[in-house]
Amino acid sequence: MKRAQTWLDGAAVIVAILLAWQFLSLIVGAHVLPPPRATAGRLVTLVGEPRFLADLASTAEAYVIALAIGMAGGLVLGVAFGGWRLIGDSFEPFMHLLVATPKVTLYPVILLLFGLGDSAKIAFGVLHALPPVAIMTANAIRTVRPVHRKTALTLRLSPTAYATRLLVPAVLPDILGAFRVCFAQALLGVLVGEMFASTRGLGHLLMASIGVDDNPTILAIVAIVFVFAGGGSAALLAAASRRKS
Amino acid sequence: MAASASVVLDGVGHVFPVAGGRGAVRALEQVSLTIAGGEFFAIIGPSGCGKSTLLDILAGLLAPGEGRVTFDGAEIRGTVPDGIGVVFQDDASFPWLSVWDNVAFGLRGRGLDKSEIAGRVGAALDFMGLKEFARHRPAQLSGGMRQRVCIARTLVLRPRLFLLDEPFAALDQQTRLLMGYELLRLWRETGATVVLVTHSLDEAAMLADRIGVMSSRPGRFIETVATEWPRERSSQILTDPRFGDVTSRLWEKLRAESLRAMGR
Amino acid sequence: MIRARWIQLGTAVVAVGALELICRLGWVRPTTLVPLSAMVQAAIAAAQDPDTLADFGLTLSTVAIVVAIAAVLGVVGGVALHAVPRWRRAAEPFIATYYALPLFALYPLLVVVLGVGTTPIIATGVLYAMMSVAMATLAGLDRIPAVYRKAARVNRLGRVATVTRILVPACAPDIAGGIALSVSYAFVAVIASEFLLASHGIGHAIADAYETFQTQRMYGLMLGLGVCVVAINLGMARVRAHLTTGAA
Ligand SMILES: Nc1ncnc2c1ncn2[C@@H]1O[C@H](COP(=O)(O)OP(=O)(O)OP(=O)(O)O)[C@@H](O)[C@H]1O
Ligand SMILES: [Mg+2]
Questions:
Q1: Which strand ranges, in their side-by-side order, compose the sheet holding B5-17?
Q2: In terms of pTM, does the model score above 0.90?
């Protein structure tokens, strides 16, 4: 009953967004802002184009690599920061600094260091994705309650059992949360990277469409990205809350 | 029950360094005590006198700075020996595991077969009155039930020595009384040695064979009071005139120390 | 803590020294990387150039406008969502995924709708920055003890007075935290938009220096911007510390 209502309310929000979009499109003109239907139509034709599929594949590849590096690297650094006080105190502030800087400005540096091409956009994705994972993991490990640590000691767990049966399950929800952030940030980084300098990928296609004022394509790409990012994030969120209850 | 010594403390002392600065806090000084096998021993003392520190040392969670501790003849020095179960003051149930898995936690990875684990966990849940809640998560239980989960978790290990650090502190008075009886029942049926730290004079007087009264910091035992209750005791003790004698004796000793602990 | 400070300092010194060394030894081309001393020189040169200062001013004022609008919209939105639990439940999944969306992919559309200039940049920035304030406001309102609301009723405050005189002040530290975050988001959005498509602002100046191979100037501008952002963050941390202790 309550569940059904939540679903209904969620659907109502989506309908409201679509209606607002339609309305805005009416005001500014369909050639400026194509309405939802036209965008959906463009989306269908776009998916039939081999060029688009190649771009999609290129983005997907870079994204998966950036996600993997960001997550693994962030976890390793996070465990080091959270597990060893001195390492955390010494090096974590640098991570915080990296999170706070607008990373776009670092883009030229990445380009100069990695050159044009796939490694630059992957590096940019990692730059976005890794620091939050490291910081979130470190914080999670630091908040494992002392009484849980003590309990593990009195139950005489081995160090590996301590790590796998106590630390990991204790911080698992936080790691899932970190993965959610990583999921979004890596996508953002790769896309922005493609927008600036790549010759392939959705970001590049977006930029090319901006260049020729191809608004239906712009909107279609934005819609794809939003649905993917939003859907993925919502699914991860649902998985996390299922774990909790 | 075996009257041989279970726990022997000999001149135990401990000093905590103060983080960041110079100076130190002396928590314990010259604590000597012998607890017999199968005895129910309660510890009371003013806040901050070192009770938890003493229990950590007994559990092997902390190596004493001075003196020696032995458990069944073997020295305990900063590593947890086999045969000891600890229940902490804070809720230590693991929120990510079901009640059943919480209780089975310490049994896994010890080479016990499945049916043995299931049998012990089932018996412990039964004993603690948690049978219907085996599949629940700790978040779905009350504070008292969660503390019972923690007791059950140590119970399945069949320890010969139970250490309890104010396990009922977070509970209301009624639940506390009931938990006290459950603890008595557990003690009777397992034959284990119990060391219970408590803030409540009544609780100590009602449950224990002997009560050690600690001084304000640095903590040491200024008095031990024997209650001489029979092993089969019940709430009738509360109406026994000797119960009043015991509590007033405890309060007499504790009053001065508590005032001192508060800096008066 | 003291040891950690020394390690930090040491790391920074070693990094700067290594940078200086590999650049001076000619191991990397000066079009790729320049030493810190050169960055500082370029930053000083940029600080004396009125055009660059104007770009800086434009960016900072845009960020300020964005934060101001985002703060108002965020607080109002947060209070409104909190007041109607049903809206909130419906909006919750969208709020939770909000920062997963690459919002400035919308920037080109905003340009189309709002025209060129600072307006689409401000709009992008507000889109980005607003939600962190709204989320912080919601979190703060959730934490307010029930007794505060009772106090409001006992004192016979009206709805508006309850919000402005009790609820918002009570969660001021949370809101301040949200606004501090929104400054970071505003910087990211404004500079990214400038970098991408604008013809003014420090983001554009950096992109321009990059495209015209003025590597040293580019690093100088980045250094200047970095110092600016860090200074603003430190300043805000001060204000927030004051707020929290004041409220406690
Ligand atoms: N890890 C520690 N580092 C430094 N000092 C400590 C530490 N643990 C305890 N102390 C100090 O040792 C003294 C005794 O602490 P302890 O926790 O043993 O007291 P307690 O008798 O259990 O108090 P309470 O009844 O309030 O639980 C206290 O003064 C405390 O400040
Ligand atoms: Mg204590």
A1: B24-36, B5-17, B66-71, B74-75
A2: no
